[in-house]
Design a protein that fits this description.
Elements: E1 2-3, H1 6-26, E2 33-39, H2 43-59, E3 62-68, H3 74-86, E4 92-95, H4 105-111, H5 123-130, H6 139-150, E5 159-163, H7 170-178, E6 187-191, H8 198-202, E7 207-210, E8 227-231, E9 235-238, E10 246-249, H9 254-257, E11 261-264, H10 271-287
Parallel strand pairs: 1-11, 2-3, 2-4, 5-6, 5-7, 7-8, 8-11
Antiparallel strand pairs: 9-10
């Protein structure tokens, strides 16, 4: 069993970005600028946005954070999105999800200028990604693809079983891994809450991507010997043993599954850090006008 170290890999990616930004600035180029809109004070979102700001500082980006209380109107939020769309200094921005129930996430996502949509959620980016055209790919799937590439994990002809069909992870991963080229050329099965014989399907997986949001859902009896397991889950569980009062649990029962794997991502320290690294990569592309 070998660990796919997302923390170490994300550091390498950030160092690569920082070196490129230094060169850009030395040539008189524009400093990349990433903005984030945060509604409310969800603990997970607060932690994630703080990590993004810290990462921006590290690589030499400008960063802006726009805060709203959770009772902000949809109209006011959409007006701010338009303001960021029109701000030429901002290369990319994200609207941190989830949003309060009275606000339509789809309406807000659609309102973001696709050329600044570094989260890769806009229908134009999703559509272009699905046909293999250059686009901003959502950060978590892009981070997973980056890990697969950098660890030289074979995907051609492999059976990939994805547990979870969300638009953020499951569906884009199924498209990316089934496309021609590397990493891709895989046969992909997408499983979800209605899948019959889930255990038997998972046992066929050469690569399992767990993105269902259920702590320690994937047990050892669902994983065949030698499989690659990528755990996307990050559920906060109350804990008396940590200073924060909580700890992160993945979708995979790591302690019992790891010994069966050829490669496995830990939680924390696996996919999570790569999500932020990918967001930075997208912002750099936006600043360089590489895609649009």
């Amino acid at each position: 069993m070998q660990i796919i170290d997302g923390k170490a890999t994300s550091q390498i990616v950030k160092d690569e970005i920082a070196a490129e930004v230094t060169q850009m600035k030395a040539k008189g180029g524009k400093t990349p600028h990433l903005a984030a809109i945060l509604v409310g004070n969800d603990g997970g979102s607060e932690t994630y946005v703080a990590a993004k700001i810290k990462a921006c500082e590290y690589v030499g980006f400008k960063s802006s954070l726009v805060r709203f209380k959770d009772d902000v109107s949809e109209e006011e939020l959409l007006a701010k999105v338009q303001e960021l769309n029109d701000d030429d200094d901002i290369d990319g921005f994200i609207v941190q999800l989830p949003l309060p129930k009275h606000i339509s996430e789809q309406k807000v996502t659609d309102a973001v200028d696709y050329r600044k949509d570094v989260d890769g959620f806009h229908p134009q980016n999703v559509g272009k990604m699905s046909i293999g055209s250059p686009a901003f790919v959502s950060a978590t799937p892009q981070g997973i693809m980056e890990l697969i590439k950098r660890y030289k994990i074979e995907t051609s002809g492999k059976h990939v079983v994805i547990i979870g069909r969300s638009n953020i992870v499951g569906r884009p991963m199924s498209i990316l891994l089934s496309q021609k080229g590397y990493p891709g050329d895989a046969t992909v099965t997408v499983c979800h809450s209605r899948t019959a014989n889930l255990k038997e399907v998972c046992l066929q997986g050469d690569i399992i991507i767990a993105a269902i949001g259920s702590p320690e859902f994937v047990k050892a009896n669902m994983v065949k010997q030698g499989a690659v397991v990528i755990d996307v889950g990050t559920t906060r569980i109350k804990s008396d043993t940590t200073k924060s009062g909580w700890k992160l649990k993945g979708d995979v029962a790591y302690d019992e599954v790891a010994s069966k794997c050829s490669w496995i991502t830990p939680v924390p320290g696996g996919v999570g850090p790569m999500t932020i690294a990918s967001l930075l990569q997208n912002t750099l592309k936006a600043a360089k006008k590489e895609i649009y």
